[in-house]
Fold:
Amino acid sequence: MSFFAFIDQGYAAPWTSAAHSQNEIVTEAAAAAAGRLAAGGYTVVYDGVIGPWFVDVFGCAADVTRLHYALLLPPEQLCLHRVESRVGHGFADLAAARHMYSEFASV
Structure:
């Protein structure tokens, strides 16, 4: 999510428990931008990582009348393979990827 790139100081890796507050703020900022576009008459498809635990946060910050949420969760091994094989991507932590996968899979 590009909104993380706006953080200059105090950044915490989003997959850590220390980042919960930061992740909520980033989710609200992204939702507010998406909501403003929707309010301007545009059809908006937000393509980003939003855990089910943040859907209500996103919906409130977007301030929209309708919100559809789809969770695409490929098999864990495929996710891990994609993390391992990416080139030039900032996220390569397999343990963190496993942790995040289990969080999404348990909801």
In short: Helices lie at 20-39, 55-62, 76-85, 94-105. The longest helix spans residues 20-39.
